[in-house]
Amino acid sequence: MSSDTTFLAIFLGSKTSPRMAAWMAVSEAERKAKEKAGMEAWMAWAKQHEAALVTMGGPLGKTKRVSAGGIEDVSNALGAFTVVKAASHEAAARLFENHPHFTIFPGEAVEVMPVMPIPTMPRAERISVETTVDAPIAHVWKAYTTPADITQWNAASDDWHTPRASVDLREGGAFSSRMEAKDGSMGFDFAGVYTKVVPHERIEYAFGDRAAEVVFTPGAQGVLVRVAFDSEPTHSIAQQRTGWQAILDKFKRHAEATRPAR
Q1: Mean pLDDT of the chain
Q2: How many DSSP H helices and E strands does the chain contain?
């Protein structure tokens, strides 16, 4: 572990332990004297290990347990916590050797555990599809971003269609295409937010926890339209590529069929 590894230390004790019974058996004056000595020793421990302390922490109060069954009051052995940093688990544990929690106070032990990094989701694989449209860039852009055009080409197969679409073509603007099986058996809204819009050049958007970009590149043979998007785990990469390519191919046919006369 690195020198900045963080560790959580939990101070354990029990109200019914023999140590607690012995603590409560002494006179109040003796107990108060031990409490004073214990707090002084605890502060001295904190001063000694000041460089290792991330947070001093503090005592823990009453516990409420939350589960599928509801909320209830419970008791446990957790008494206090401290957060430290150390070069290793062993080094972190050694910070608490002879700690006043159990050498003066009636605590049972200190348990030390590393605070692990939050797992990250694996990055979605990027899939790309492309086509070249034999039409002027202005027409290709309009056909790709106008709701009336989108409803004509936005389907991967003949048994699906897009009965309605909306576009607010600006950064932060929303879009939505209602994609449905023609027999009405199923459908969904393909919706998201535009994150970047460069007219006649690029569109970037987010949909759910995924993102996509569309790049328009004019050339001698027409406009190359390239769509790159984050994959999803439900369908195979091949299925997703085939579906998005089919939609893009249908867009090409629509854009070329509706292009202005030369």
Answers
A1: 95
A2: 7, 13
